[in-house]
Design brief:
alpha/beta; 8-stranded parallel β-sheet; 5-stranded mixed β-sheet; binds iron/sulfur cluster
Amino acid sequence: MSNERNHVAMPAAIEGCLSGDRPMSFGPAERRPCLQATIGGQQGVAAVTVGGDAPVRVQSMTNTDTADAIGTAIQVRDLAHAGSELVRITVNNAKAADAVPAIREQLERMGVDVPLVGDFHYNGHKLLRDYPECARVLDKYRINPGNVGAGKRRDDNFVQMVEIALEYNKPVRIGVNWGSLDQQLLARLMDENAGRTAPWDAREVMREALVQSALDSAEQAQSVGMPANQILLSAKVSAVQDLISVYRSLAARCHYPLHLGLTEAGMGSKGIVASTAAMGTLLQMGIGDTIRVSLTPDPGGARTREVVVAQEILQTMGLRAFAPQVVACPGCGRTSSTVFQELADSIQTYLRDQMPAWRERLPGVETMQVAVMGCVVNGPGESKHADIGISLPGSGEAPVAPVFIDGERSVTLKGDAIATDFQAIVDDYVERRYGAGAA
Ligand code: SF4
C-alpha cells in the first residue's frame, strides 16, 4: 500500500482519509461500555458513580500518616478542594484503622463530603474485622490480591475482606500491582509457558499474570456474592508500554470499570510525561473510568499537584473541563521581556484559584479559553481564537497590548498595570458571560 504523493506506506485508516473527500479527523474512541459502580452515598457522603455513562473520574491518595486524623483530614480536604472526586487513604495498622472514623467526623465538620477509599494490604482482613467503625465509615475498599497471604490463607483472607464489604454494602477495587504480583500464579503461568511450542517472552507472561490475577480475583469475589457492579479493577505497572498492553487486555476481557494509574511514575516532568503518555493513549482508545496520577511530590511540594495533572490530562484531551485554560506561546527571540510569561502564569493560577467559588455560580466558566501571547506574529490570531486574549508587545513593538474578546479587538492596555487591568477585564468577562444575568 503506498501513497502516490510521497511514496510512503500508510496505515489503512490514514490511507482511507487521504483517498476520500473527508478531511483527516480522529477523535477519541467511544468509551468502552462497562458496568457502573457507585461509591459513597451513605451518611452524608457524596455518591460518585464510576464507569458506565459517568465521566472519567479523578482520584488521589494522601501521603499523611492515617493515624494522624487531623493531618489526614486536612490533606483529604485539600485534595477534594483541588477536584479529587475520591480520596484514598492507607489503612495499614490498628492506629490507622482506629483513626478512620475520626477522619470522617473531621471532614464532616469541614463540610467535605468526598468518599474515602481504604487501601488495605497484608492485614486488611483483620483490621476490617477488628475495627467495624472503620469498615462502616469507608466508602470503598482497595484489596491487593497479591498482598493478602499465600495459598489457602490468601483465599481465606481475600474472602473475609469481600464478605465484610458485602456486610457493609461497599464496592471494592481489586488492585493488582507489578511489585506485588501473586507469585504462585506467576510460577504456574511460567510453567505453562515453558510447555508452549513457541513460548512467550517472559515479560508477556508477567503481563498476562497481572491480568489473570485481577480477573480471577474478581471472579472469586463474585462467587462469594459480590455484585459485579460493585467491583472495579486496576493492574498497575511502572512502564508505559506495559500499562497500555495490560489495560488493553483487561478492557477486552471484562466489563468492570477500570481504574487507570501508572504506579511509581516518578518525580517532576518524568512522572507527568510517563503518566500522560500511558493514560492519554488508553483514554484515546476509550479505556479508563477513573484515573490517578501517582506523582512523587518534590520535597515540600503540594500533594494536590497530582489532582491538577489528572484534570489537565482529561481537559487537554477534551474529555472533561475543570478550569479555564490559558494558551500561551513559548516565547522566542521576538520577545525579550518576561512580562508575558509572568502574566500567563499569574492568570492561570488566578483562574484555577477562583474555581471553588466560581464552579457553582458561573456554570460553563471551566470551558473558557484565555490566550496570553508574546508578540504580534501569532498574538492577535491566537487571541482571536480564544474567548479572551491579550497580545503583549514583542521586542521593538509599540508598548501596547491589544485585548481581544470573543474574536473582536477590544481595549488596548499600556503602562505598568497591564496584568491587573487584564485580570479585571477577565473578571468582568466571566461575570457577563457565565453569571446569573448571562444570556
Ligand atoms: S507569538 Fe511571538 S514571541 Fe510568542 S513564540 Fe510566536 S513569535 Fe515568539
